[in-house]
Design brief:
single chain, 383 residues, alpha/beta, 7-stranded parallel beta sheet, 6-stranded parallel beta sheet, 13 strands, 40% helix
Length: 383
């Protein structure tokens, strides 16, 4: 049986749900579990879930009172959760052998306890690790935006300990696998398992239609949804917008702004800034957009790709993320995330809308990204 440890609601609790689906979940340990909120999932209503709700609230109140922010808060929260999880694991110590799953950066103490008891450990690596940090550092230096702060050395020291303590490391993309290999993580520990996504009933019956031609009154709508920062590739995207001035193209940005927006784009009539929107409102943007763009410089996977495909939306993506796009079938892969390449591709769609129609007709969430597929892949980690 598996014990899944998870801080936060990452991936809508896909891992414990997949384990529950296969009858493999012995216990789910998380920080908060409150019905009728974002920290709950009905698929786990009958599972054994342990969550120190009061202690979690106390921790957050203390953090607020002491004005803890940034890396200090992240590290303190990760450490707090691990201590809470270990205390719960101690209650399972006499109940046989287990496989313990935990996500990176909040797993070291959990795995140390598990290994002392001869339990199997599986690390869920959420990103490409130090390789990604170097990419982000480089792009910030080149951009002149200096507000970004790297993780302290202790953060990466703990991560390397987690990798050492893990029997297996689950990454969500080949991109992440190569990143870990370059950091010296043994290849025989790494298993590529993509994320899971369950399309809504509404999206499965949705019919997407494109106009015969795009005009000023009905422009080509390009959607970017997620954190608006340099890692996500908005630098080249911003430059591409400048190259497309006066074209019948409209750019929609949905999500929190984490960088300084160029002055000329703040009031650009071709650009619409929607900010952070409720989860219930996100689907509206997928439905009304014509193409989804994900020019990320580095991502462990990029779940928004699957969200977009569930609405039959063609996806333009880089190679530095999860392998979701089948190039020229249901979207386009950017060989280089450059302003010119982005602009040329969008001009092509603008001039020939039927190309978008053809990509949309082949778009949808492939069964390899199902919860059942995730469950089967995780089950193989236990052998």
């Amino acid at each position: 049986m598996w014990i899944s440890c998870q801080l936060g609601a990452r991936e809508h609790y896909a891992v414990p749900r997949a384990l529950q689906l296969k009858g493999l979940l012995g216990e789910f340990i998380t920080d908060r579990w409150v019905p009728r909120t974002g920290r709950f999932h009905p698929a786990l209503a009958r599972a054994q879930v342990t969550a120190p709700n009061v202690a979690a609230l106390t921790f957050e109140l203390k953090a607020y009172a002491t004005r803890a922010t940034g890396w200090k808060l992240i590290i303190e929260r990760n450490d707090w959760f691990q201590r809470q999880a270990v205390e719960q694991l101690k209650r399972q110590a006499a109940n046989g052998t287990h496989t313990v799953f935990a996500y990176s950066y909040a797993a070291e103490q959990i795995f140390a306890f598990a290994r002392e008891r001869g339990w199997r450990t599986v690390l869920g690596q959420i990103d490409p690790g130090p390789v990604e940090e170097r990419i982000v550092a480089d792009v910030h230096i080149k951009s002149g935006q200096n507000h970004w702060k790297p993780a302290p050395p202790a953060y990466w020291s703990q991560w390397r300990s987690e990798c050492s303590l893990a029997d297996e490391i689950v990454v969500n993309s080949t991109w992440s696998k190569h990143a870990l290999l370059s950091e010296g993580v043994p290849a025989d520990k790494i298993r590529v398992i993509p994320l899971a996504y369950e399309p809504s009933a509404e999206s499965q019956s949705f019919q997407r239609r494109y106009p015969d031609g795009f005009t000023r009154e009905r422009p080509l709508r390009v959607l970017f949804l997620g954190q608006i920062n340099l890692r996500k590739g908005v630098g080249p995207l911003f430059d591409a917008i400048k190259l497309l001035e006066r074209e019948a193209i409209e750019f929609w940005f949905v999500g929190p702004r984490q960088i300084e927006i160029p002055a000329e784009l703040k009031d650009d009539p071709q650009v619409r800034w929607f900010g952070v929107v409720p989860r219930s409102r996100v689907d509206w943007y997928y439905k009304l957009a014509d193409v989804f763009i994900f020019p990320t410089l580095s991502d462990g996977f990029g779940l928004t790709q699957l969200e977009a495909q569930s609405w039959k939306l063609p996806v333009i993506a880089s190679r530095n993320c999860g392998e979701v796009v089948n190039d020229s079938v249901n979207g386009v892969i950017l060989e280089n995330v450059s302003p010119r390449m982005i602009a040329d591709l969008l001009i092509d769609f603008l001039r020939v809308p039927r190309k978008l129609s053809a990509l949309s007709a082949q778009s949808g969430v492939d069964p390899r990204f199902s919860l059942e597929a995730l469950a089967s892949s995780l089950n193989k980690c236990n052998r």
